[in-house]
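Exam review. A common question shows you a sequence with its structure tokens and asks you to describe the fold in words. Practice with the pair below. Do the first one on your own.
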Amino acid sequence: MRSFFKTGRSTVYARTAAVATSHPMSSLVALDVLRAGGNAVDAAIAAVAVQAVVDPHMTGIGGDCFALYTPKGASAPIALNGSGKAPAAASVEALIDQGMTEIPLDSPHAVTIPGAIAAWSKLLDDHGTMSLGDLLQPAIRMAEEGYVVQPRVAHDWAQYGPRLQRDAESVAVFLPGGKAPAAGDIHYQPKLAATLRKIAEGGRDAFYTGEIAEDSVARLRELGGVHTLEDFAAAQAEYVTPVTTKYRGYDVYECPPNGQGLGVLMMLNALEGYDLSPEALNEADRLHLFAEINKQVYHHRDHLFADPMHNSVPVDELLSPDWAAHARANVDMAKAAPPTVWPKVAHTDTIYLCVVDGEGNAISFINSIFHQFGSCIMPPKSGYLLHNRGAQFRLIKGHPNAIGPGKRPLHTIIPGMLMKDGKTVAPFGVMGGQYQTMGHVELLTNIIDRGMDVQQAMEAPRSFAYNGALEMEPDCGAELLAAMQARGHEAKWAPNPLGGAQMIWIDPDTGVLAAGSEPRKDGMALGY
């Protein structure tokens, strides 16, 4: 039971439809679309287009997206991969010959062909009811007439704005007067408004052919990229088969590799062997257990996850009871240990939103330019930022995730869908880069195992073991930090809040929607 003496948001309950996004204007626009007769897909596209304007450090038309969509009455979600591919001329050997050991975040080689517009268009064509032109109008107005900068956006803008300094076009747009806008300032993006208007009028082809593509390719090649107009013209989103596992009687669905959603299912499979209730597991034991399982999942991810069109990913083996047993066998509850790859498979910043409409359609949707402000590269005439997802490629010959022609990199962005007995329970997601796999697991186990409501599950303190360290949010408390250090973890306070979740839970008996929105962000859940 929530105590209303403590600060925090209430879960939003609604009878007809609900939305949850990380920005208030995005939530409002999504609700406006639903109330005007649009469906969940229409509302999601309108909302993400708005966030491409008002959350410029997190997402944009120069990024990628993934979606899970469950139409009314469907027994499983449809999965869409809207991630872009490396140019046809991309070569791991060429970059190694240039002396690179990894792809710099602000390099043109970090820019894969943006997949967002192709994905938005495909979703709308196949499952929407409104036109892309109509749904882009709120975003166009905000870019052209100005929008008010929200507090968390302003905080991140000030912190990461210096990354923009290497690109004069980006500086002119995002550091007006030489500084980041503050909370309450009004910001304008007229070039982006003009680009969005072209897309509204010409659809997908307006972005991937013609003036916008020419501007993008010219800028990338000027900086040393190998992108071509043919690379842009060939971009397309693809339907894929979601991966799934059962957890405590629920069916959890994720997009398959090249995304990291498989890791969520691996972690849940391992954790199902434990009683995670507060009565059975104290908080120190829970954080330690999650850290140890999480390290093993991410270790396998970094060794094995890749584009399945170019490399075989052992999905069945990694979802097997044998892998879960291997993971549990490698957990010592008394001390931290380094992860190892299971011998059977050994190989020699983002926005998320969800919508449930009045018909029962549910969409889980995530869109990203990867690092804050992406690559910081802006095509000068078009006014949008290109992402840097290609920085996830490895510059190791023979590695499954090595860069290559027409190849998709490992992706961190993952939408989730929870179902039970063939019915949709909840679209959900957690933005936050590498943290997202752990974020999905923390969110689901907080509700299913620990009895929290949707909003409480989001507000609970978070931790994340990755890259040799265990980051903990300060609300975990100094005693818990010390307990983790005593078990051998390199535990430290997280420098920034970990992740940002959204979720809409559907009551199977009444149909009432329980929507929650991340308190670490500016957004909100709304419903009617």
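Now try the second one, then compare your answer with the model answer below.
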Amino acid sequence: MSKKMVRKDFSLTNEELLLQETLFHTANGYIGVRGNFEEGYPESFVSSRGQYINGFYDIADMKQAEQLYGFPNKKQVLLNVADTQSIHLYLDEEEVTVFTDRIHGLTRVLDMENGLALRSFVWKSKQGKEVEISYRRMTSLVLLPLFTIEVEVKSRDFSGKVSIVSEHFGTAENFVNPDDPRMAAEAEKYLTVKECVYDEEKQMSSITAETTNSNLRVQTVVFHEVSDSLELGAIEEHEGITTVFDGEITEGETISLNKYSLFLDSRRYDLKTDASLLAKEVKKQPLEGWYRKQKEYLAAFWNQSSVSVEGDPLLNDSLNYSLYSLLQSAGKDGISNIAAKGLSGEGYEGHYFWDTEIYMLPFFTLTHPEIAKKLIEFRYNILESAKENAAVLGHKQGALFPWRTISGMECSGYYPSGTAQYHINSDIAYSIIQYYQATGDLETLLSYGGEILIETSRLWLDAGSYENGSFKLNCMTGPDEYTCVVNNNYYTNISVQYQLSWLADHYPLLKEKQAPFLDRLGVTDEEIADYRKASEAMYLPYSEELQIQAQDDSFLAKPVLPIEELPKEKFPLLLNYHPLFLYRHQVCKQADLVLAYFLHDQAFNKEEMKRGYDYYEKLTTHDSSLSSCIFSIVANQIGDVEKAYHYFDESSKIDITNSHGNTQDGIHAANMGGTYLGLVFGFAGLRIRKDHLALNPRLPKKWHALHFTVNYQGSPIKVAAGKQEIILTTEGNEPKRIVVYDHEYTLTASQSLKIPYRKEG
């Protein structure tokens, strides 16, 4: 099954092209390039022409109407660092563009098996002569600073002059939209060019720019390979470097230009020496060699990651795009993480949220644990900043991770739906626990994972208090951002309970293995006993009248907001109603208590989950793209497979169909992770338990089978779930304990498991 996204003969409207800038972006977790046309658009068009480095930022002012103590007044902002995309092609001095009625066959392809983005069309001159034009882009997954563009001009019956103008600009502006709180509201100058040089001997341009406030530097280097029929012409230096190649093309001839761009930042590289070394590395092999390495990398990726269903081709296309985009988005160096829009756009200003740990990290934990490990390492690398953040908020001990950040600074300007979401601590803890249980990687737990668990647990003891023998957590916000700063948010409390209990249970292991942080942090048996006590005394609000869990202490006492009566144009509610109006009603932006049913499913029975699900479903607007996938998973848990499919179908195709109408700002990265969760944790019913892997497959009517591979404790396990039987195979050396439909099995390499499908699983 080919893994390609194809668009043919599409309309050249501004709206469509902005959408395609996102859909056809190329990235590798370090650099990201929006899918802009090399030649640009008409002057009347708006474009978010962007090239980004994950974790490279400047610091901007964040105005507060009233600057109270502890309110952040600065924020980190992902920068559009350069423009090396621009290439202009001239034939007989006429610029080749698609914005003319003399083109046909316009096609774009995102090739996810070869890691390339292609654009091609046939252009006709004023004299009626035709030329085939193609642009091929690659952001290397093997050499992360490398981005390439290959331009190919194939003459059908045209003969004449050809000129290719390649531009390299060292500064670029960030995109702004003052009407959308998810985007930057004001244009600011973030970068200043400090050095702009062209090395004639190496035929290579280099531009170094410096941020205004963060004292970071970025260097971009550009060089070319061209056909023999092209010669280097003029070199122009004006706010950048323009390189011109001139020549002749004859009927039937093909000429090409390969443009290599290298991106380096001062957080990771020595800009004085590394650019030259990387350029030498690139030149050791032709572009075809880099294409081959890209294909090999992706062959291994898909072998470990591929998920497919029988019976829904569009879903498979969306699945491929989602998993490929997650790979493109994930930081792989411990310095960066996964931004809300990946590296496809500037929505949410390049910030990292809890989305990573709850929605995206599970995919990497189960398929590419080496990437998951680096994402956890990022949190450890900002742990000191998290401790400082906790102190600002008045805590005497522990760490509180910032709600949104790039390198540790709290960048949330509105604390009720930002900083008050303390659950980010337990979300990070949950991801560490899941990673350990899935991989058995004790070294990571001992070296830094356990330290994060200790420091975040210390925060909980300081933030909570006892009342009538119950441990309570007041003045916090759960995942539902339409209900803020409440007492005893159920999701937060049960997540903290799980974290504290797990840490207390595993403290003897940490002591036995002499985890180095125990002595350094002064961890005592008494401290661990306090965690156990708080966990056992955790208050979990419940309505005896309704026989359901309460989202928090006051939620069920509020009037219900009749969302079914609201006009469609009033959604999303956060853009059309004052926050206090929303806070005073029973209305949910996204899954909150229902998310607890998923992550902590063993704490509930099916009947109580169904009662709670039915109640909160009526109150949830799904204004967040993080919501529908969770409702799908829990619908499966309570046995409503067709409702699960309804929610899954709604959420799984958000970007390729632009169903939320804002994909032009960037992909919905967390929802892409949620799509994986919906399939593997939802319809396959996979759970990573303390000492085994559990499966409980349920398939909707439309599907015939579900296929996927996971890596469990070093062994790849292939799952084929059909409506007759479930087949499990592994090539791992160690036998694995697997529980399917509550029956225990041992899976070995010598014998596959074949288990009858249970319709009412």
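Model answer, second protein: Residues 315 and 653 are 7 Å apart (CA to CA). The chain is about 30% helix and 25% strand. Full marks require stating both points clearly.
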